[in-house]
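Key result, reporting period 2: structure in, sequence out.
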């Protein structure tokens, strides 16, 4: 019983530490981007962009660069921690991103990042077979009224350097 508590406590502490570090990371902090929630298994993150004097443009809407910054680090962080829980060290980064600004962001924005069990299984299979995996994910930034202000498609790249395939 104590071992289970210790493991749960260790991962909870790790999640809280990760959340704290990301929330004080200057590019996110100064853009008023806050990680509000992380699931225990790292498959879900909820992020908020607070509209403030630090991230508004002359139209008094959230600057597009701030919105784009809110899409950037979370999927690679999620995948990294998902595989860390499985004792696998994987090299992961955001390989490509496309963003569509749909409406001016005149209020705070909320973004929700999800990785499904199927996404993880597919990644594990391709990493085992090829040593690498790419996956497109789509996330929307929603204002207080529930209106989508921006949508981003992000290509996440995963590579297991321990798996060497002939012909790569």
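The corresponding designed sequence is given below.
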């Amino acid at each position: 019983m104590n071992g289970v508590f210790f493991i749960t406590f260790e991962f909870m502490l790790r999640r809280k530490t990760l959340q704290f570090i990301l929330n004080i990371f200057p590019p996110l902090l100064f853009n008023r981007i806050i990680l509000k929630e992380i699931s225990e298994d790292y498959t879900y993150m909820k992020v908020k962009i607070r509209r403030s004097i630090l991230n508004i443009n002359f139209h008094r809407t959230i600057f597009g660069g701030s919105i784009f910054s809110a899409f950037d680090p979370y999927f690679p962080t999620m995948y990294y921690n998902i595989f860390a829980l499985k004792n696998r060290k994987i090299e992961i980064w955001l390989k490509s991103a496309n963003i569509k600004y749909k409406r001016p962001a005149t209020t705070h924005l909320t973004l929700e990042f999800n990785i499904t069990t199927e996404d993880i299984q597919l990644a594990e299979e391709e990493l085992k077979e090829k040593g690498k995996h790419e996956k497109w994910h789509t996330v929307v930034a929603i204002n207080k009224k529930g209106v989508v202000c921006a949508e981003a498609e992000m290509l996440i790249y995963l590579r297991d350097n321990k798996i060497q395939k002939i012909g790569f």
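Residues 32 and 50 are 5 Å apart (CA to CA). The chain is about 35% helix and 30% strand. This case is discussed further under Risks and Mitigation.
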